[in-house]
Structures
1.
Amino acid sequence: MPDTTTASVAAHSPAIETRSLDEILYPALEPYQTEHLDVGEGQRLYVEQSGNPHGTPVVFVHGGPGGGTSPWQRRFFDPAVYRIILFDQRGCGRSTPHAADGADLSVIDTARLVADMECIRERLGVERWLVFGGSWGSTLSLAYAEAHPEHVIGLVLRGIFLLRRWELDWYYNRGGAQNLFPDLFDAYESVLREHAPDELAGDHIETFHRLLNGSDPEVALRAALAWSAWEARTSHLLIPDEPVQASQQLAEHRRFALAFARIENHFFANAGFMRENQLIDEADRLGGIPGVIVQGRYDVVCPPRSAWELHRAWPQSQLTFVPNAGHGSNEAGIAAGLIEATDAFRALR
């Protein structure tokens, strides 16, 4: 368990990680239970459990919003020790209805997602659990923990995103990120130059919102692919080669992109359905909850400033800056830091 008995504003950087991702993660495993949980308003959430049914409960909170879960994400946890709970948030992954099918986004917001997590916890008979989330998953994890601290053993967070205006402008508008990836930002803006040239000087989030929810499905798809590609291509310190996709994979990619972009943009166009700086202002509610923050030093999607400010506002946290990583949880240094954290929390119940 991390030593969180004293407040600190220090952070550390581990040694450069040389192992492969497959060497770092726990072995692949299959769930022992899956279900679709009815949480009301026509929403049915995909929920799965794997690992030790009698172990320490841990809930994996995926990113996006709208990203969904993947089987490899079970591998951040020792399956002999943890009762591993993964779920797909409203509108994405294997939850229904799916945002790519035109699901009503008016019933998807932060308060409802927090309530959904409580519904899952109660359904599974969990009193307290470790909450694990990265990127938007860190946002939702913090919102949940600040609303229900009595049910949180600890927090393991990665790529801190506090959904403040400057963070949105930095990445989605003509803020700092475009200066680091001008070619990729140009590709991101290309759909706006074609379909909304008079709005290029305005708020890209609002313009994409109109295109993603307009009457032309082809324009919506192009906007979704541009939005999703910008994020995917800038999420790693070293940009990975893009795979050649077969027709079925391409169809799945388009479906993912539509849900991901529609839901994510829906949240960002509505300021995350939170007050500006809410998660920092209410960080005192985390008092007594130990936590580990793993942050890529060169994270362009969620700049390290947010991790530092959260750490300063939450004395029980430990902050690790991974020296050779960007945003992705599948970067070796990030994955190693997360495994180290979950291993340290194994004894908590």
2.
Amino acid sequence: MIALIRYTFATVVHTQRYLAPLLLFMGLMGVLTVNGSGPLPPAYASSAGALFVCSTWLTVALMSLDDPTQRAIVVVSSGGRSLKVLLAAVGTALLSCLVLMVFGLLFPLWLGSYDVTVADLVLGVEAQLTCALVGIAIGVLCSRLVFRRQGYALVAALALVMGALFAKGMPPVNRLFTLMSTTPDAADLLAPTSGLLLTSALLLAVFTTVTQFVAARRE
């Protein structure tokens, strides 16, 4: 698995497909993060939203690194286990998001003047990880393994992203943002956001299973 993750990292760096989602993340952070003060949850909601969109695009890019012929070679080289190759791509996306999470945690603190508590930092980690997992799940489902036509994949990804962001009360993303924008005390949010984090992990597991099922039938 480690070798496959290293291969995926090396390929995405060589092809530079990480640049567009990375620039999008940096741009959204610059636009959404303001030089503010007061409670931190709304600021971390902005960081989580930026990571959500970035993780979706990055995962789609990672899942589309290899054409079908090259993917078949990678699967054979990994012992014929296509699930292992899929999990390596998911792991690569998750590790990349963990690096971006550090920036998402520190950038609002650098720009603003906040009274930071441990609960604020924990909430920031939970919020960003929740959005990253949902973004990765959407990226996996809307990859080439499921949608052979890029146009259909793009429409599906946009529909899922828009639904997750704007469908009122929809867990975990919209519900998370609603809680963080209306509850200033981070300590009061830790329990409900933990539940949303678990929901996002289950969603990623389900979408990964569906993607593997579709890909295995085609292969």
3.
Amino acid sequence: MRIALLAHVRQRIAQPFMGGMESHSWYLADGLIARGHDVVLFAAGDSDPRFTIDPVVAEHYERTFPWAEHRGSAPLIAHLDAGYSAACDRIAAGGFDVVHNNSLHRFPIEPRRTAQVPTVTSLHVPPYDALHWFVKASATPGHHLTVTSGRQMAAWWPDGAPGRASVLHNGIDLAAWPYVASGDDSAVWCGRITPNKGTHFAVEAARMAGVPLTLFGQIEDPDYWAAQVEPLLGGDIRYGGHLDGAALAAEMGRASVFVFTPCWDEPFGLVAIEAMACGLPVAAFDMGAAREVIGEGGRFAPANDVAALADTIREAMAIPRHTARRRVECLFTRDRWLDACEALYAEVQAVAA
């Protein structure tokens, strides 16, 4: 099958990943190619050169439009509109069997576009104004929408989802996140370091619990880092940097608990299943899809309640490590995810024919 994979272009689709969306697109391209598909990655031009890349923009827009300039930036909107408009035109003329759209841009889901090439659109975020109404108007026979959790489905369609929408859980390659049978009694946190990921809450709770904690991830919001996270470092609390997958998996495997602190309606929580695959039970704020994803592999505290999270860290450490691993093996493997993607591709092709 000839597949156009249309990615978000804020960051490179390359390791070390800035977040779950970049990881999703990279592993999707890698997995589909391994299954024999002809995949063209429409992404930022500075993405991983191992893939066949058709640039939406020459370089990821974080480099051109820094963090502080993202919201409501007319030049950025014009830049992205021009890039995605041209990319959609190239896809329409490129002989593709299907598009998998991870872009979060309005152009690829226009009915005139999805009528040209059957499209599967994966929504990785809760509904927001800039995209919400375009999604609602995008239903056509050759367009299927996916969300990453039941919680996210209810957020997008509180009155009931359309027939052309379904839950498509994320999946990971278990070989990339090897199971480790025991930990060193420390905690680990990983993610984009930004307020809605709650990094400072993880630090405060670990200190209260008396458990060493290492933070990993990109410092996305430097002001938040400087004001609320960096001053808390020291002693048993350290920052371990922004690591590629193999190095991060090794660090994860050494720990005994993963701390997950979403402060928004988290649609899935890819880092949680990566940690669980390594054998780490999870201590989590009960936000978004956390309980749906983590299940018996963790314990939960009310959102923003640091004292309760500290208790939860200690409780989660008592969960057998194989419990967390087994949940990922049953529900969130890469093969299961890719099987579902291929089935959706076949479905939209058949309906559009």
4.
Amino acid sequence: LIILYNCSLSESMTIKSILGSELNSIQLNMIIWNNGPTLLEENDIVNHLEASQKKGISSFIYQDIRNTSLSKIYNYFIQKLNYDFFVIFDQDSNVQFSFFQNIYQYTNFAIICPAIYPKQKNDKQCFPSDFEQRELVILKGEFNLGTTRTINSGTAISKNLIEILLDKHNYVFDEKFAFYHTDHRLFDLIHETSETALLKGLCIGEMYHDMTCELPLENLSQHARLEIAFAKMLMRMYRTQNPKQQIIRNLFYAYKMKKKDQLNFNSFLTLLKCVITKEHPRSKVTIDNNIKPTHSYVVN
């Protein structure tokens, strides 16, 4: 599943690198969700489907330009599709040639993920990392799911892990979160679930990824600052025993974030709304249960 935003199919580093990867013995279904703000151009779609056909990849393009919450998109396809491993990608990840072979060869692991290097500091691995100490990175090899976290992009989640989470919680991604920290909340859920915390993951290979969090504050747009503020506030709220009792403290914390993160007045008001509703504003946007791809190519 690849999420595009303000990006064409031909411009996506993720799509380009997947089309160049080794897929011997692998049946790959590529779901592309265009999250807006405009529809994809027809010639871009035609070129992509031709490239998918040559590579032997089934490709399905969905277009909903409302900038829908990522957690809702993830959950929708997790529960709709048939698969052995479900892999999430942002549009700007550089996928190694052997990425899918690494999954194919190690199917006994609950999660398989590459070592993540931010494009902003490509000599510094940042994920996977220790669950509590983010600066303590996990080296390549096996790890316990309950003591580790990583980002969504490039993470292959096994059907077995997904089925356990759905059985215990009825969801995989927390839909109160929309964009940032949907991955942190996933690993919170894994950590808190005894049946999944002891499962094994594998870090293998490398992936370079655009990490907004590595940019200094002055380089972030007001929109990016607000999205990060939403994520920090929601993490604060849902890592307490009873968030309803914390509303006064959270309002005060929002005021401190306004100053520290240099939020303008409108952003501050929107953050206050998040404190009161206890969810991201985009969480109210729903996906049509009968949505169909606008374009597709299916390998026979």
